[in-house]
Amino acid sequence: MGLYQEAAGIIQQVRDKRGTVKSLVLSHRRVKNTKQLYALVCETLKYSDVLDQVIDAVQICKLEKTLQRRPLAQVVVYDLLIGKGLKSDGNLKAAVWKHKAALSAELARLKVRAKVASNEGLLPEHVRKEAPLPRYVRVNLLKTNVEDVIGHFESEGYSFDQCSNNYNSYEEYLASVKSLTGKHFLKDFHLPNVLVFPPGKDFHQHPLYTDGSIILQDKASCIPAHILSPLPGSNVIDCCAAPGNKTSQLAAVMNNEGKLHAFDKDGARFKTLKSMLAKAGVQCAHLHHQDFLKVSPLDKTYQDVEFVLVDPSCSGSGIVSRLNSITDKEDSTPTQRLGSLASFQASILKHALSFPNVRRVVYSTCSTHREENEEVVQRVLLETGGQFHLTRALPNWTHRGLGDFEFGHLCLRASAQPDYTNGFFVACLERCLGDKECLDCYHGDGDDKAQANQGNLNSMNTNVKRKQNSEGVVPHVYDKKNCNQFSTKVVCNNGATGELSTSKKSRKRRKLNGDCEKAEEKLQNSVWESKERNDSVPGSQSTFLLKSKKNGHKKRKRKKTKKPIV
């Protein structure tokens, strides 16, 4: 398959929401020059409205059988009129060359009517004026350090802004980023090992990139691993690791010490993951070519896992590109697809929280949709029954989650405006390890958690009664009257419902209607016990473990049945 056919296929897949341009281009291993393919796809998409007007006026799709596919006709006509000239010597070139005069004349008429002199003038205003993002460069601390990288760029004629080491405010930093031009660069305000260059800088052929000393990674993509911050020597899981940027960052945070389990089930992406980690000098990674959802939390291999990064597949609606304004309209992702994505995201986040010794889980997406972000977090918090709570992710970050969620201020959002990054969402969940901390299951270390606590509990107790798992028992909810008291709603097969209360000191039944003996006995034989443990999570002193109490209960007498004499 030739270059034009490959480009046309990718354009159709992008319009069908089957992937981003970048991911689809990288998956086409048969094309030798992926950079050329990427540029051809991007430029054709950018000029798609103009190309459609020219193609429809000349009716080339009707006149030429080889150009009946609209994406293919767009690619060929773009390269003839706007690109670098046709490179094909086959039927495609012959088919379009016959209509070159008519196509060129129609393009000229469009420019006359629009009163513009250049082809770019035909583009919509919001496409022409959309500001590109800065070039972010993450220094790979496994191979070098920030000072040496800055020195290397300065030796090439770049000028480092010394003021970036001591900005007075985030607004002052943003103003400096906006004014970056030429060979000036600075250090990021939040991430000390990230450098910021003017838009359009291409370092793909730079020696520091080719030897793995720097990683070309958007700032927002660097935030999740920075928040997770596993200690050196930790056991960590990266659920959806490919292509490997976040995985290599985690390895750097861990100083290549400990175990970093990286999962990806896609074959092509797994190969990319392997090559990228090797290039970055990662040595602590254990790569798993499998679906993370099929991994048992009880497997001894993962018993000591304490940190998990969950960055699942998403709609990608936050990726900033001129193509977004052409291929996507606001909220254009179909509701059905958003629903299926959110279900998958919730399942993988919940699975990550099920590992017995996990302490901290960071959930992130490059989506702007609430269905994939705050709603997923809310759903999982309810389904895990108060075992985990949110902590304020990156406290000095000003752009927070949506305000119509009570826990929104604990989440983090990033966007092109005002942050000069891709659209991103991050939430940090930590295991509850004490009565008071568990009570604040939505609120972590925020200053206003005490004021919002009562409203959160009311909302949580109301919503959780509507949530019912497949076993008919809703997860434990913390009782707002007593921080040591827990209540569980029971739904039996015969339709009887009730609410069982349990505490460390007493266990008594309340509001139990109907015959619910089986569910009652199951819950009465359980007791919450507190186990003191030393833990490095700030403010945490103990954790609650649900254990079966074998002694001390008067079990119900059951009628003995005589065994038949053999």
TrEMBL record:
InterPro entries on file: MeTrfase_RsmB-F_NOP2_cat, MeTrfase_RsmB-F_NOP2_dom, NSUN5_7_fdxn-like, NSUN5_RCM1_N, RCMT, SAM-dependent_MTases_sf
GO function terms (MF aspect): RNA binding; RNA methyltransferase activity
Signal peptide range in chain numbering: none
GO CC term (a single one): nucleolus
Domain SAM-dependent MTase RsmB/NOP-type: start-end pairs: 125-432
Keyword annotations from UniProtKB, A to Z: Methyltransferase, RNA-binding, S-adenosyl-L-methionine, Transferase
Biased composition (Basic residues): 547-566
UniProt keyword annotation of RNA-binding present: yes
List of residues binding S-adenosyl-L-methionine: 240-246, 264, 291, 311
CDD domains noted in UniProt: AdoMet_MTases (cd02440)
Top-rank taxon, per record: Eukaryota
GO biological process, one term: rRNA base methylation
Bias type Basic and acidic residues, positions: 512-535
Region Disordered: start-end pairs: 497-566
Active site: 366 (nucleophile)
UniProt similarity note: Belongs to the class I-like SAM-binding methyltransferase superfamily. RsmB/NOP family.
The protein's name in its UniProt record: Probable 28S rRNA (Cytosine-C(5))-methyltransferase
Originating organism: Lingula anatina (Brachiopod)
Gene designation per UniProt: LOC106173379
